[in-house]
Design brief:
The structure holds 2 protein chains of 2 kinds. Chain A is built from 12 helices and 16 strands. By secondary structure, chain A is of the alpha/beta class. Chain A has a domain of about 300 residues: Metal-dependent hydrolases (TIM Barrel, Alpha-Beta Barrel). In chain A, helix 9 links the parallel strand 12 and strand 13. The termini of chain A are far apart. Helix content of chain B is about 30%, strand content about 25%. Chain B starts with a helix and ends with a helix. The chains are: A alpha/beta, B alpha/beta. At the A-B interface, helix 10 of A face helix 9 and helix 12 of B.
């Protein structure tokens, strides 16, 4: 009997250990409800796969794209939206957002994005800071954002886990979590960690201190993984006699990266630092999925393309710090066109203003590239804010382009999305119409916005 | 000087200016956004003589002008950047590259001597279409300092256009009560009007101002020029009730007021219009960043204009001051008439800050103009050439040099 209890205990413990690896805690409860059937006709479609359909239709059925193309037969008795030749794109994805963790209003009491108390905080998870009633989220929805990735800030070398959310109103963060999206891990190069910790006369205070800090963390992660592997390789009997390694939240996350389950999102401005980070990834046999804010990506665009690493960039931000001094407008275009067009360029916002118009930011970057002699059509540039961020978030099989079987994340625009004058008309998240310019009750106001200016109305 | 000599000099001056050294530039067949009530002129020419616009019309002929065909191109007045730190900030996070703050002076900080015409931000924003900057210090506290106007020519000797034309203050942010800030604004103005009188010393000695508040003579003279209506007071404020308080304050003290920010301006647009108070907007920002701007919204510019408020459009970002044009485009998409948006970037700024002969394209005006590949407010348009006082400016900046190095690899 005693032995049985022991086995049960060990079993429970192993389950917990495995459970954490399989993200069984804080599971997504996202449920958009059934969309029914919707037919969008006479649309000029940028599919997100690199194609443009000049006059096409999309059939949405039960939250998924059931059909897309020219001359689709219109099914009977289906809610039909005539786009009248207007542009339709995939739902826009922002791979770099702090909505929810740095919400508006920007108050100290809810600025929860940087656990800047230690340079390695792989144990913290951004989702545990998310305020779901951040009024920035419905503004982003109006800008066509259907999915966004929330990261911890960049004060730390290793800042913690990021989380991918669907842009839907929910009382809980679990209710927004993109189902089964892989976790990500935020790392940061350069000035920020060395400023934060160097300013306290602690390590790191230099870029070489930064690099030592990453490597020391990965060495600890390797040690922990060895301990886990050693325990797992024991016979059942031996496991009963010994103790399972104590869970370590920080190292579990780092081991998740080494095992290829957690994707590295690496804040990094300078070309030489990106090259160093890629060598560290080789040293410890993990992969950098994307460099964020990559101001100097154009200097190493071929190296990024060879290593299949994406660069997430702004169209034109610069100069706020020294490592952001060498900005060029053609950055995204050069990354995109590297190695015969095999580069992975992403336009991101890192801003609650920018996230409302990633289409315009992509437009600026596309136009700059074309002026410099590239030939980048809208059908390609739209991928910078749809398919490519989906790829770098590990959700490209599910969203990021308008293809049969994918989530019906769809935006109808009132003009060419690559224009300052264009706004969204309709935004569908999983086939659910969450923003309709003709319906003043959309997007749904957050709790914060009710009665906050006039007691009988919403914020705006 | 006798009469004959005077006549001779006048004659010589006339001859020199008319026949020998005058330079003419004729820009032909452009689409011209004048930023005047004449609006936009299709397929039109501009004749520039010695840096001044002399004629605008169809099929202008001049035997000695250098001609440039601009078919398919667009011309606008040079954009003016209101309230930036152009020329006094290089890298925001590096204090030793910043000349925009002072702990020693408050209202009296004049930044003319610190302005750096060789800042990398200057050619960068020039190639983005900005020709003039209303460079303004950003000291923390109630008063940020005095605004001066600089051209973006990059000239070491001739960049300053106009000195100390406005005083900036801010009542948003900080932890002191709004009421205290308004009281201090008022007390400071009152004290300044007495600066050179005997009663000033009496008041000063009686601690007329609260503990911890002291002004140098420079500070008080700056305040005095506001109190005397020589220059306007630009106050950063966003909350509707604060804007009303400021309107009352301006009336009571008989000063010229400009509201910067005005994110909840749409809620008090009638009162702003009645008081004739212009606003400086950053229309791209609709985030309720604090409890003082909960009513921030993208159609603010449009609603204010409809009520008759004069609109100026700026950008929060000094490095990308030229992106005020994107903000203007967004304001247009939310209902602001296109011509008004352009005036918000040009003519209205010149009018409000009394920049003589600038900000629009009309005869007699200084030829600060921009040639665009298309609609100046559209994000996919670019600047092809900027002229400052009729002189072609460099078309490159540091960023373009970097791009050329790496694109050719």
């Amino acid at each position: 009997m005693k032995k049985l209890i022991f086995v049960v205990l060990i079993g429970t413990f192993s389950f917990l250990l495995l459970g954490s690896k399989e993200n069984k805690v804080f599971e997504s409860t996202y449920d958009p409800g059934n969309s029914g059937d919707i037919f969008i006709e006479d649309a000029r479609i940028l599919t997100g796969t690199g194609k443009e359909i000049l006059k096409g239709s999309i059939l949405i059925s039960s939250n998924k794209i059931k059909a897309i193309g020219e001359n689709l037969p219109k099914p009977d008795g289906v809610l039909t939206i005539n786009a009248n030749g207007k542009w339709v794109t995939p739902g826009i994805i922002d791979i770099h957002s702090h909505m929810g963790v740095y919400p508006a209003p920007g108050l100290r009491s809810s600025s929860d994005g940087n656990e800047s108390t230690s340079p390695v905080t792989a144990h913290v998870w951004a989702e545990h800071s998310v305020w779901t009633q951040d009024p920035q989220m419905p503004l982003a929805l109006k800008g066509g954002i259907t999915t966004f990735h929330v990261l911890p800030g960049s004060a730390n070398l290793i800042g913690g886990r990021g989380v991918t959310l669907k842009n839907i109103w929910s009382r809980t963060v679990q209710g927004m979590k993109f189902p089964d999206a892989p976790y990500t891990l935020k790392m940061a190069c350069g000035e920020n960690p060395k400023r934060v910790y160097g300013g306290r006369s602690s390590e790191p205070s230099t870029r070489m201190g930064n690099v030592a800090g990453y490597r020391k963390a990965w060495i600890r992660a390797q040690g922990y993984r060895n301990k886990l592997t050693e325990y797992e390789s024991k016979s059942e009997e031996a496991k009963e006699l010994g103790y399972a390694p104590t869970r370590d939240l920080e190292l579990e996350t780092l081991v998740g990266v080494l095992n290829g389950e957690i994707l590295i999102q690496n804040h990094c401005y300078r070309g030489e630092e990106m090259a160093v980070m890629l060598d560290i990834a080789k040293e410890f046999n993990y992969k950098v999925t994307a460099f964020h804010h990559a101001i100097e990506a154009y200097k190493v665009a071929d190296i990024l393309a060879e290593n299949n690493v994406c660069a997430a960039m702004w169209a034109d931000w610069w100069g706020f710090k020294h490592e952001a001094f060498d900005m060029v407008w053609e950055n995204a275009a050069i990354v995109d066109q590297a190695n015969v067009g095999t580069g992975c360029a992403i336009i991101h916002s890192d801003s609650s203003v920018g996230i409302q118009r990633l289409n315009q930011e992509a437009a600026k970057a596309m136009a700059a590239g074309n002026r410099a002699g590239f030939n980048i059509p809208p059908s390609r540039a739209i991928q910078w804010i749809s398919a490519n961020p989906a790829k770098a978030l590990g959700i490209a099989e599910r969203t990021g382009s308008l293809e049969v079987g994918k989530m019906a994340d769809v935006v109808v625009w009132d003009g060419n999305p690559f224009s300052v004058y264009t706004k969204t008309e309709k935004v569908f998240v999983d086939g659910i119409l969450l923003y309709d310019k003709d319906n003043p009750l959309t997007p749904k106001a957050t709790d914060f916005e009710l009665g906050i200016i006039s007691s009988e109305g919403d914020r705006l | 000087m006798n009469l004959n000599k005077k006549i001779l000099i006048s004659l010589l001056t006339f001859l020199v200016s008319t026949f020998s050294f005058s330079e003419e530039l004729l820009l032909k067949n452009a689409k011209i956004h004048t930023a005047t009530d004449k609006g936009t002129l299709e397929n039109t020419d501009i004749l520039i003589r010695d840096g001044i616009i002399v004629r605008i019309g169809k099929k202008i002929v001049s035997s000695r002008a250098e001609e440039r065909d601009l078919s398919g191109k667009v011309i606008s007045p040079g954009l003016i950047a209101p309230q930036t730190q152009l020329g006094i900030v290089e890298i925001e996070l590096i204090p030793e590259t910043r000349d925009d703050r002072s702990d020693i002076y408050s209202a009296g900080l004049s930044i003319d001597s610190a302005f750096n015409p060789s800042s990398t931000l200057i050619p960068y924003n020039l190639t983005g279409g900005i020709t003039l900057s209303l460079t303004t210090p950003s000291s923390p506290g109630l008063f940020s300092g005095l605004t001066s106007v600089f051209s973006l020519s990059g000239s070491l000797e001739e960049s300053l256009v106009s000195s100390n034309i406005a005083l900036s203050a801010s009542i948003s942010g900080g932890e002191d009560s709004m009421a205290a800030k308004i009281q201090l604004l008022e007390d400071s103005l009152k004290l300044s009007s007495l600066v050179e009188s005997k009663s000033y010393f009496d008041m000063h000695h009686e601690s007329f101002l609260p503990d911890g508040v002291t002004y140098s003579a420079r500070d008080l003279l700056a305040l005095k020029s506001v109190a005397n209506k020589e220059i306007p007071l630009v106050v950063r404020a966003n909350r509707a009730s604060d804007i009303l308080t400021l309107i009352d304050f301006a009336k009571r003290n008989n000063i010229n007021l400009i509201i910067n920010g005005a994110e909840e301006g749409w809620r008090v647009s009638r009162q702003l219009a009645e008081a004739g108070i212009p606003v400086i907007l950053q229309p791209i920002d609709n985030i309720p960043n604090s409890f003082n701007e909960l009513g921030s919204r993208l159609d603010n510019a449009s609603l204010l204009h409809k009520s008759g408020v004069k609109i100026i459009i700026g950008s929060h970002e000094t490095h990308n001051a030229y992106l005020s044009r994107q903000g203007a485009g967004i304001a247009v998409s939310y209902g602001l008439p296109w011509e008004e948006a352009l005036k918000g970037l040009t003519k209205n700024i010149a009018d409000v800050f009394k920049l003589s002969k600038r900000g629009s394209i009309q005869p007699g005006y200084i030829a600060d103009i921009v040639i665009w590949t298309g609609d100046p407010l559209e994000v996919t348009s670019f600047v092809e050439q900027v002229y400052l006082s009729g002189e072609p400016m460099p078309t490159k900046n540091r960023s373009m040099r970097l791009r050329e190095r790496y694109i050719s690899q």
